[in-house]
Amino acid sequence: MSTISTSKRTVIGGADNFWLFDEQLGFDVTHPSSPDSAPIYPRLTLQTSKTPVTLAPQKTAVVVIDMQNLFLSSAMGREKGPGHAVEQALLEKCIPAARKANIRILWLTWGISEEGLRSVPPMFFRNFGLTFQPESNNSAESTSSLEQKWRPQKGGIGKSVGKVTLEDGTSIDGGRLLMKDQWNTGLHGGLASAFEEGMKLTPADARFHKETHSGFWGGNTEFAKHLQREGLNTLLFAGVNTDQCVLATMQDAAQQGYDTIMLKDACGTVSSQFAQDMVEFNAHKAFGFQSSCDNFLYGAGHIETSAAKSEL
Fold this sequence. Notes:
Number of helices: 10
Strand content: 15-25%
Largest sheet: 6 strands, parallel
């Protein structure tokens, strides 16, 4: 349904899942029981690329995707890049904003089980077991060059990474590639500490493993069940790679009726810039909304706790 209520707010959606829209105030995604119900408090207004969005912190989670040693650690040969800029944005802005607003963080990462290893699609074994040579992020080159070929490389999903040397010179076992509870699938650097601290909070942080791009793939996943059990409706997305695991999970969430907000400076990719641009465009055009860590931090400092505005 889409109607105009007596308060001149437009109802966007159906009887069981709707937003409220006001041309001046933007979108209200706090999910009251009915369009005419009293406003839900506390409430946080987040400026997005197109309009303000007001959300309910108790119904909201930040979803941080794939910020793992495999993709970020120098011990795995990773040089400073977009993922490290995301890590900095998370530690300096996004996580402090979530803590200030009492919004939980859900850490969603690769972590394949022994059972799951049997059914992982072949494309992932190819993507992590072969390399495309010569590598190119240029779309014209990648489609026209006859010299580019998939070539096997050492290792692959489920195979031993071997010994790796950390920045302090310590040598440790990197574990089996992309398998759960291994060093290579552990959270990277200060993010691991942030998760440990978050588990002591109320509501507490939680971590979930996935076995493909999306945290919703594979039926009713533990991640999906947690969202349902905790009554979480609004998801703020961060992590790597923007155009792969972040996009897949965000798109699945939107299709299942969740409110999705991409924090664009907390999402990064090693793909070409056009891939990042495409996801940012669709985040606010097709799936939901697009915002930033700065806007999140500002909103967290100006939460309304009652009908009269107040700051935390």
